[in-house]
Amino acid sequence: MIELPNQNDISTRLQSTKNFSASDSKNPRVTSTSESVVLLEGHTTEFKPLKYVMLAGGIGGSTADFLMHSVDTVKTRLQGQKPAKPPKYQNMLHTYATIFKQEGIAHGLYGGIAPAMLGSVPATIIYFGTYEFVKRKMIGLRIGIPEPVVHLTAGSIGDIMASAVYVPSEVLKTRLQLQGRYNNPHFVSGYNYKNTWHAAQMIRKLEGTGAFYHGYKATLLRDVPFSALQFAFYERFKLWAMMLENSNILSLEWEIATGALAGGLAGALTTPLDVMKTLLQTQKRPSTTKAAKQSSTVPSNTPKLTHHYYSGIWEGMLWNYKNQGIGGLFRGIGPRVAWTGMQSGIMFAIYEQVLELLEKFEKKNNKIHQDNNNNNKNFEIIRGIK
């Protein structure tokens, strides 16, 4: 079992580090020594070029989202199913097996992957770029802002900036996940979308453009604290890992572990908000129910279930708690923790690896450029001598 270092251990091990004092260990702060180097509780790290951060973040985030999409589908099905006894989907493994058997991979477990990727790539680029930009600006103030405040603030602002891109794609993704390969009768959703483009057209026609931002407040209420906690936990766990390894560079195993732990913990804490986000984005307005039914293929023998229209986040959480207990608020916590944990582990590991590769590539190019300049200078000198 790995024992995490306490604050006294960190202070002792960093006494020889430049610009680190005992007071810093008691009151963790981020300080700036230049535009490219910071001291994180006495541990030296370097700022990478912002364009590299954005590129690495986009690659890491979208790759992780693609690889973990099936787990997200399982989580969405568990959260989106209507109250029934017995429920169609009972747990994570049962849901996986049921979807795979009945609907397959492409249209079942990976339903909604197209809008997911269309939103993931630009959103993660914006998110990582904004996070790093805000973090550097706050550190650049040189007023000793506490480290957790820096990461929480930067993570929150980053998610708010990216939300304009990923929320519409989240609506499309979630509906296609619930629809599955067929017009899933268990959800009585009335969805009968042929593909992503058809889904976008039908939503705009029947519900208006504003429907693409259904659950926007709920999504922000889930993702802003999640992103803030995720980055705050990751930066903290990464620092602890560096202390344990006594190195500024972590192994791939440590990068995956710290990212997974940060994402899983943040995901667990924000599960009730994720449940409400799913329910708000997939419910239909009463005025559009009739039109939706006319375009659906729900079998006539589908059992009728009692529905509740959620007017808002807090009303929905209260209704779920009263009618389904604490379990109603934490539906799908297993696959959510699995998804956020594994997704974060993969994302941060790829992010760090890509950053390292880009840095090596830049150094190699700089060396080649410098060698060429030296050769040109030597050639000019030789010509001058002749």
Automatic annotation (TrEMBL):
It is found in: Membrane. It is a multi-pass membrane protein. SUPFAM superfamilies: Mitochondrial carrier. Residues 351-378 form a coiled coil. Solcar repeats lie at residues 48-137, 146-240, 250-357. It holds the Pfam family Mito_carr. InterPro entries: MCP_dom_sf, MCP_transmembrane. Keywords: Coiled coil, Membrane, Repeat, Transmembrane, Transmembrane helix, Transport. GO terms for cellular component: membrane. Residues 1-34 are annotated as: Disordered. The keyword Transmembrane helix applies. Its main location: membrane. Belongs to the mitochondrial carrier (TC 2.A.29) family. This is Mitochondrial carrier domain-containing protein. It comes from Rhizophagus clarus.
